[in-house]
Amino acid sequence: MPDWQDIFAALREDAVSVADNASPRSVGGGDISAAWQIDTDDAAVFVKTGPGNSLDMFEAEAEGLRELRAVKAVRVPDVLACGVTADAAYLAIEWIEFDRPTSDTERLFGQQLAAMHRNCKKKFGWHRDNTIGKTPQHNQWSSDWVEFFRHQRLGFQLQLASSNGFGGELQSAGTELSENFALLFHDYQPAASILHGDLWGGNWAATNGQAVIFDPAVYYGDRESDIAMTKLFGGFGPEFYAAYQESWPMEPGYENRLKLYQLY
Question: Cα–Cα distance between 207 and 130 in angstroms, integer?
Fold first, then answer.
C-alpha cells in the first residue's frame, strides 16, 4: 500500500485538489499496476500506483496519452499528474464513467480511428521507448518500416524468447521469417501513422456514445498493426471495421500482413 499522504501532497502540487481525508478505492483496470479511484474537490480521479521504478513506464504512458489526445480524433483521458514519492510512482488521469457500447458507438469509433491514423510522421518510431504491457518496446526512429519491424519488433521478441529459454525451432522459424517477410511489402509502402500500439478489446470503452482509448504503447507505424491487434482477442464489432474500411480502405494484401503483426 503506498503512502497516500505523500501522493496526495504531490497531486496537490499539480493542482489536483485532493483532501487529506480522501479514501482511495481499489478499482479494476490495474492488471500491471494497482488502480484506484480518488475523489477530489472537482471530480473523481483515476490513479495508477506502482513501485518507484515504475516511473519511467508511467511517464511514457502519460506522454503517449498526451500525444493521442493532441490529435483530437478519438477521446483520450486527460493526464493530470505523474511522478514519484519516497516509496511509489503514480499516474493520475481523468476519471471517465463507462457505459455499454452500441453499434453507433462502434461505427463512430471506426471513423475516428481512421482519422487518428491519418496523423503521420516522416519516420517510423517515436522520440522515446516505452512498454507494451510490462515488455520494453523500442522505438528508435527509422525511415524504413521493414527494417524497423524486423529489428525493433520481431527481432526483439525473438531475443526475449531466446533469453527465456525458447530456442531451437522457434528461433529457426523466426529467423527465416525475419529474412523473408519483406516480400509482403514489395508493393505496399505504409505511412507512419500515429498508433495506439496496444489496441486490444480491454483498452477501449464507451462513454456517452463515443469511444475512449487508454493504456497505449504509442509509436508511429503501419496503421494495419493497430487493426491487427483489434482482431486478436475480440471486443470490436462489424460496424467498427466497416466504418474504418469506408473511411480509409485497407490496401491489398493486408490479410497476410495482419498475421505478421499479430506475432508481435
Answer: 27
